[in-house]
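Example 5.3 — DDE-type integrase/transposase/recombinase
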Amino acid sequence: MNEKTRDEVALFRYGLIAPLVNQQVEAKTYLNEIEGKMHMVPHYGERKIAAKTVQEWLLHYRRNGFEALKPKKRADRGVSRRLSSDEQDHLLDKRKKSLHMPISVFYEQLIKKGEINKNEVSYSTINRLLKKHNLVGKHIGVTQERKRFAHDKVNVLWQADLSHGPYLTIKEKSVKTFLIAYIDDCSRLVPYGQFFTSEKFDGLRVVTKEALIRRGKPTIIYADNGKIYRSETLQYACAQIGITLAHTQPYDPQSKGKIERFFKTVQTRFYPLLRKDPVHSVEELNERFWRWLEEDYHRRVHASLEGQTPHEVFQSQLDHVTFLEDIDVLDTIFLKREHRKVKADSTITLNKKLYEVPNRFIGESIDIRIDDKGVYIFEEDKRVGEAILVNVHDNAHVKRTRSPFSVAIHSEENGGKTHV
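Solution (predicted structure tokens):
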């Protein structure tokens, strides 16, 4: 089992224990429900899981954190073919355009059009993927009866989403913006929001880190199935600090009604101010937005808060807010993760670039984590080194010592002496 698979298994295990970690459920009832179901476990396939096993995972997690949920390392390594995130997104988009088609026919069409190789991707793999995203069966997209709900304590649930922002004219070019934000389900307070010029995960990383630092830790983050909210990086981060990451069903935007309503408020109350007094940079847009958020939105009586403002409700329940004990942990848990095998010359390849790592990792598969500042080496969830980008030209003039893995050569002509 390779490192990526170990991580996937750990994420699955955390998904089962998360409601217990955050005391969202009555333990005995929840464990009985788990024992009665079949679970699709990464690497292992369909399994029934005993309540005692779940309790052991919970105990290990509370004692030693996310790392304790990973299976122990074994000498044999799995080599099964897995769909990458981009491949999954592509297939899900294809499926949404052909919901009328039975899965068997859809699978055959993918093979016929060269989208997948039958020998590499099985029907069951495709079927599991589509089932996971509710794209199988007769009830796809059926509207369900919905009742209003709201949690009565702050930081129990944060709704998350991304909204298309205004176009800005920067250096005579039209630039599109995107607003990424969280909203607290109870108080309607926005823990943090910010505009970006792309909808990539980097923006969500910034918003999540700032929200956690400023407003404490939620029990649950509730988001749709957008790519950035399904990223493994966000899953790992939530698991590390004990947050349950939950997703809406496909085609069900109404389930995140509070964040959608906030975006509408931004459109009707904030954007008109920009038309009257335009901004000319993303930095200026955010400065204006943050000022409006604190002076207007947070201080204005909310229709659903019985005459109170979001700020008043949140402040009245500060005793329910759990702040992170060590905010420095946020610098590592949101790093993108990769695994690489170190070559005999102490290098790894990442994004078509060559990086050099310490000699002691030669021949090993290492855990690396990445941000826009560098590439870092981790062991047992702790940073132990950094990978350095190789300058091929400079490296040609560097005097190197011979690798400790060099094979000793015995020469009969030299009287059996060993040359190293």
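Remark. The chain has 13 helices and 15 strands.
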